[in-house]
Design brief:
By secondary structure, the protein is α/β, with parallel strands linked by helices. 36% of the residues lie in helices and 13% in strands. It is built from 11 helices and 8 strands. Strand 7, helix 10 and strand 8 form a beta-alpha-beta unit.
Length: 314
């Protein structure tokens, strides 16, 4: 990987989103009182993603109970959950005609179930209003709670995403209270709870001081725990109080890591300096046989809107 640099390289500079359609969607999100990762993080990719039928909503509040050294989300005592949030998210998904929705969350260690039941309610509400939408959830580790994880998987998201974030050596420095092996266990159990129905996904940031061998080892650990979808992106320091960028990884290094990960056994990989867990999430789609099995499972369990045709279901 390249030598450290103090200035952002040109490949990280992109134009800000604009245009009438973008403004309409941005106004809709604001009017519904929703939090999107796209807007809160001022993500330069958000116009591109929204144009391709995908968006990312952050639920369970705006305040996190953890203080990870890479994340700018505010840490404090969170407010109670908003019971109207699931329906508002579902309305926005329907109004935006999204093909793929990523629902992420702040970590809620203050709640007995870590917010799992709320996530399940969001999944159910989206499916009732937009049965053709691919639903991806990006969750916390729920403190390792099997019961909380079960609540989320029982709601049957298409994709269960939990980020490893970094290599094992750097995890104690980067992720407050999180554990590398516990994250792997969460991903493994998500696939085991609903085998053949849920696709698991994870992501890592590069540029925190990891070396290539550590990245390959982490990818191998993910594969060994059933993960087949992967994102690799550049870590960017949100404020001077957060961990510094050790290295700006070159685009060609990301391209090489993508090819390596595919050769190792990952089925779908997005890798590049601007890639985030939510960037172009619509490009991630479970295999058709998995989607078919999930549709049958949802019908059997009565989890689809009445009179829904197969052509209307993802």
């Amino acid at each position: 990987m390249s030598a450290p640099t103090q200035h952002k390289p040109t490949w990280l500079k992109v134009p800000l989103p604009h245009g009438e359609e973008f403004r309409k969607l941005d106004d809709l999100v604001r009017q519904q009182g929703l939090v999107t990762v796209c807007r809160e993080a001022q993500c330069p990719n958000r116009g591109e993603c929204w144009a391709h039928g995908s968006a990312s909503f952050m639920v369970c509040g705006e305040v996190c109970t953890r203080a990870c050294a890479f994340c700018a989300t505010r840490t404090a005592k969170p407010a109670p959950l908003d019971p109207g949030e699931p329906e508002r998210v579902a309305f926005a998904v329907q109004a935006m005609q999204l093909r793929h929705t990523l629902v992420t969350m702040v970590t809620r260690d203050d709640l007995p179930d870590g917010g799992a039941a709320h996530i399940a309610s969001v999944i159910n509400a989206i499916r009732q209003h937009s049965p053709a939408c691919i639903i991806e959830v990006l969750t916390s580790d729920f403190g390792g709670s099997e019961e909380a994880l079960q609540l989320v998987i029982d709601a049957r998201p298409h994709i269960f995403n939990h980020n490893l974030e970094t290599v094992e050596r750097l995890t104690p420095l980067v992720r407050f209270r999180a554990q590398y092996r516990r994250s792997l266990q969460v991903l493994r159990r998500a696939g085991e709870i609903a085998p053949g129905l849920i696709t698991t996904k994870s992501g890592m940031m590069l540029g925190l001081g990891e070396d290539r061998d550590e990245v390959i080892a982490a990818m191998r650990d993910l594969l060994d725990n059933g993960v087949r979808m992967l994102t690799l992106g550049q870590y960017l320091q949100p404020t001077p109080r957060h961990l510094p960028v050790i290295e700006y990884v070159r685009p060609e290094t990301f391209a090489e890591l993508r090819e390596t990960s595919l050769s190792m056994g990952f089925e779908q990989v997005a890798a590049g300096p601007l890639i985030r867990s939510s960037h172009f999430s619509a490009n991630f789609r479970p295999r058709e046989e998995v989607l078919a099995a999930l549709r049958e499972d949802l019908r059997r369990r009565g989890m689809l809107p009445p009179a829904t045709e197969d052509s209307d279901i993802s």
